[in-house]
Write a structure and sequence with these properties.
367 residues; alpha/beta; Nitrilase/N-carbamoyl-D-aminoacid amidohydrolase; seven-stranded mixed β-sheet; 16 strands; globular; binds N-(aminocarbonyl)-beta-alanine; CN hydrolase domain-containing protein
Length: 367
């Protein structure tokens, strides 16, 4: 499908308005008249056509100042599963690896330095089936599992930092919803565990894995201080707040969410978090339809709506990737913008954490 023909919010607006009105619209809605599209190589366009993924690239600059710019290129990848979920787990995973390798190769050839994949990227999101044992082979070690072994090689080869959200099985057999951070030398730098587990509608993840017990870590990578807020955690303002207070410059929100479940929030929450906390946010959602045969008969189907996007700390945002297709979004950012916006608005300086801490303590002692 041609990039501008799909019926997305961004395309409907773009195709309906004349150029003058479009500029005005862009300024009001996206925060800037122009999307600042980055030119990509012919070879990258060719790879996106051959491998059937959307390729979009943008930039966010900062004002010139005494410090040199701190430019970082980030890459967001959204992708569908490939094989039917009744195929062997090893084959399903291998098929995803083959696809992701091509997208990462393209990202690397564009000079991307930090990549984040979607929530539990190496498997179908079987957590809606209410079955566990059948899928147990998808749960893997955060240091020695197939996903990390596969990505470590690519990280080392291209000097990439990669955020790899997986379903983790630890040494004592407990499952966690984990984002592993692999550094540019292919070492596991650390991990973040999903703090808030959904238990609503068909998103009932509490029977599968434990809620995170590692707080809000920030990873001081070669390129930027990064943190992760996994999917449902984006509904919690304090989850975002702690990552900012701990020093995050970029927060990734790898997700698995469907239209019936609050697509109307999708464009607001991470954008608001970027403004409130003075950092860049990267929203990444799964895409495509996943069908599961239930052991008790019948099928379960879930469709994810993609629409990954990036927001800068001043609230300006990119258009979204496709609702239907695999995609790679490359965004060049200048981290100086974080401090410039913080200095301009003073949200941190005026935050009054002291009064919240007192009131929270009081509330806690009453319960
Ligand atoms: N994976 C996950 O946490 N999904 C919950 C749905 C949502 O928060 O949008």
């Amino acid at each position: 499908m041609e990039r501008h023909s799909e019926l997305t919010f961004d395309n409907i607006i773009k195709n309906k308005l004349n150029p003058k009105v479009l500029k005005e619209f862009n300024k009001i809605y996206y925060g800037r008249e122009d999307h600042c599209e980055l030119k990509v190589k012919e070879s990258s366009l060719k790879s996106s056509e051959e491998n059937n993924f959307e390729l979009a690239a943008y930039s966010f600059s900062a004002a010139q100042e005494s410090r040199p710019p701190r430019l970082v290129k980030i890459g967001l990848i959204q992708h569908s599963v490939i094989l039917p979920t009744c195929e062997s787990i090893r084959e399903q995973r291998e098929a995803i690896f083959t696809k992701i390798e091509k997208i990462i190769n393209t990202a690397a050839s564009e000079g991307v330095q930090i990549i984040c994949l979607e929530e539990t990227w190496s498997m179908p999101f079987f957590l809606c089936t209410r079955e566990k044992e059948k899928w147990a082979e998808f749960a893997e070690s955060a240091t020695k599992g197939p996903s990390v072994i596969f990505l470590k090689d690519l990280a080392r080869k291209y000097g990439l930092v990669i955020v790899s959200p997986i379903l983790e099985k630890d040494d004592v057999g407990t499952w966690w919803n984990t984002a592993v951070v692999i550094d540019e030398e292919g070492n596991v730098l650390g991990k973040h565990l999903k703090n808030h587990l959904p238990s609503v509608g068909s998103f009932s993840e509490t029977p599968y894995y434990a809620p995170g017990n590692m707080g809000h870590p920030v990873f001081d990578t070669k390129y930027a201080k990064i943190a992760i807020n996994i999917c449902y955690g984006r509904h919690q303002a304090l989850n975002w707040l702690m990552l900012g207070l701990n020093g995050a410059e970029i927060v990734f929100n790898p997700s698995a969410t469907v239209a019936e479940f609050g697509e109307s929030f999708w464009n607001i929450e991470a954008r608001n978090a970027a403004i409130a906390n003075g950092y860049f946010t990267c929203s990444i959602n799964r895409v495509g339809t996943e069908t599961f045969n239930s052991t008790s008969g019948g099928t379960i189907e879930r469709t994810y709506y993609g629409s990954s996007y990036v927001t800068a700390p001043n609230g300006c945002r990119t258009p979204a990737l496709s609702r239907l297709r695999d995609g790679l979004m490359i965004v060049e950012i200048d981290l100086n913008l974080n401090r410039q916006v913080r200095d301009q608005w003073g949200f941190n300086m005026t935050s009054r954490l002291d009064i919240y801490a007192t009131e929270l303590k009081e509330l806690q002692s009453q319960n």
